[in-house]
User: What shape does this take?
Amino acid sequence: MHLRSLRLRLLVTFGLGALILSSMFASVTYLGVRHVLIKNQQQTDLRQSYLNAALIRSTLYTSPPDLDSLLNSIQHATSSNVLVQTHHQWLSESPGATTGDVSTAIITSVDNGKITEQTMNVDHRIIFVVGVPIPAVETQVFEIFQLANLENNLRVLLQLMGVGALLTSLIGISGGLWVTRRAVRPLVEVSQAAALIAQGKLSTRLVVTRADEEVQQLTESFNAMVSQLVERLERDARFASDVSHELRSPLTTLATTASVLEQHRDELSPAGQESLDLLQADLSIFQALVEDLLEMARSDAGASQLVMETVPALELVRQSVRSGARRHGIQEPSVEVAEGVEQPWVRVDRRRFERVITNLIDNAHRYADGAVAVRITHQDGLLAINIDDAGEGVALEEREQVFNRFFRGRAANDRGIARGTGLGLALVRDHVQAFGGTISVTESPEGGARFQILLPLIAAAHA
Amino acid sequence: MPRILIVEDDDHIRTALRLMFEGQGFDVDDASTGEAGVALFDRMASDVAIIDIMLPGMTGFAACQALRNSSDVPIVIVSARDETADVVLGLESGADDYVTKPFVPEELLARVKAHLRRRPEKSTNAFTLGDLHVVPDEGVVRHGNGAELHLTSTEFRLLTDLASTNGKVLSREDLLERVWGYDYFGDSRLVDVHIRRLRTKIEPDPANPTYLITVRGAGYKLVH
Amino acid sequence: MKRLNALLLLMLGAVLLAGCTLVPTANSPTIVTKKIPFGLLGQTIPGTNNGRVRFVTQAVYIVDATGHLAATSRIVPSPPTLLSVLRELILGPTSIETFAGYTSDLPKNFVIVDAVVKDKIGYIDIATPLSSLSRSRQVLAVGQLVLTAQAPGVGATTGVQISVAGVLQETLLPDGRTSELVTANDFSSLLNH
Assistant: This one.
């Protein structure tokens, strides 16, 4: 039995524990009481036997014929049967006595001169037989006691004990329920807080209440851990930012001096010129990388940097496409607006949005001979901006990973063209998500890749 | 030969810039502190200035303000940071443009050249805005009493461009292209800050503009 | 898991044990060793002058299935008195004897007023006369009395005299005679040889 739920395990343990404990207690109590009651009864019966034996002795001594009536009156008084034996023959019995109730074993023992007692079960009746030898009158007296009364009392006791055990178990279970809830609640709270933090709500902390010491410890440790993690994250973000920052000045020098060299290209030897080409090529990658890193660090630091405006989407897309294409010196893809798309408004950070479009167009240029078109439609109540190309598309298994930082897919490895910084698509995803939208890649109508941005529409009235 | 002032404390960058602009036919004066830069500017009467924000002693902002107080020449600030606050502050201090390090040297070059080239749109007729009389041909704005209102060439160009459309709305991107001459990825904050500066100069109540109107989501227009 | 099993077994065992209301059936007899009061195990009765009672087996005569006198035994306190022996006689056959066909010809309401042995003669005084019985029965009844009275141990070696309410009777003998003093020999013909 491997229960996965702590709650259930606790509950079962409590319930079972209560049941076992109360049953054991009830049993022990019952057995103890029974033992004592029986012993006491036997003592009493024994004393009665002695008394009767003495009476029989004196009757046999003084007036033997009165034996019968003596036995009779004994039976009337105490409802126990008495049998008297001498010379292995029954001398007298009280009415209703059964000689069969006296076993040969007890007779033998009494014949040996020992007072003997025996408990027997005859026809579901429990009887207690006491045999007393009276040597002075050469007889053996056997008294048979019914323990029916005692049996009844014990049965009642057993029933009571059973009920008690059951009640205790029920109380145990409810106790278990209460304890379980109390014990498990902190765990649930911790897991909830952890989930929130994983989602990115880094300010989540557990509330410190005057709870149990262990829970309080857990809370404090958890909060401390989260704070440390957050600090580490911020430090890392700051580090990336700081590093990129520090790179600015040397990069500026490099770029500027490369530019100067370019101006003096004619004065260089062919080897020098080729070297200059390589220098400039990698320098631009380097610069782009540093810029992307900085952007990334800014993005990581939080959305507080965003300047959100409600803008008409179509104009913004057109301008972004135009400036993006011109910036990279590539051909502008056409912007096609589907029928029924009228004056859509979206809420974005302009600069970042332009960056998104630029990156996607640049991506299409690098890996797919340029974007064929930018198509705007409505989809599921959202605004869809599709950047379609006619390249080889993105393999199915890479469609999630392609937005990861520094991911090199098959396409990138296949082509020998200038590599990107590796952060372009990651930045696109970060920005789009900051706008409250989503980005995915599927197939374009031309058979290449379609990068689709879905943004929530703002009703014109709110614009 | 246009004269350019470069105020930059990083030796390597300063030297590289000097080399680049000299190679492009500029007369270059350079300084490594704000104070030296301001003094040099006064003495040499530069046509355009490039100032780094991060300077020891007198800040780049202060240097920019000092220059702007005495001249209308184009000023481009160079910043290591792209924070909106810094950009705005720089532009408010009187700069016409800003670039962030690391910049593409060719871009900086192009921008400087564009700023030098800029002349007001001569085809526009003179017009009035309340008390102010705008004369594009002469490149001046006068109060009713004849006193001249100082606008930088950028601000002047912005004003006349908006006027030339006869009340039509111009988007930020349009303005960037027409006024700054950018046919590439520009920063609309340039436009926003300059509009704000213009408003403080020409509007009776800059907080509630009557001439330079913002059209939400579209751009700006001039009503006269 | 093992622990749980052990616990469950323990519980089960406890419950089962409690299930039986009393100690299991048919346990062997146990000897009581504590102090016995009243001096029950003493050879004499306390408070008496070495008083004790002994029992002897004494012959009494009843009638067998063939209509003859037959001897059986009864236990009577020792030393046997005529009265105690005769008392046992009039109690009649035991259930086992009755089952085997034995009877007693003494009437149901037979009462012995008194019975003593004096000078080796047994004097039996009865309440009602036996003459109401048929002759054969009467003879058997008397035979029972006489043989029983004259059995060894009682001491009525000479003979027996029967009286009714104190009045001495002429007792009828099997051969038809009557006599005041009768002996066991007189009734020997009634025995089953």
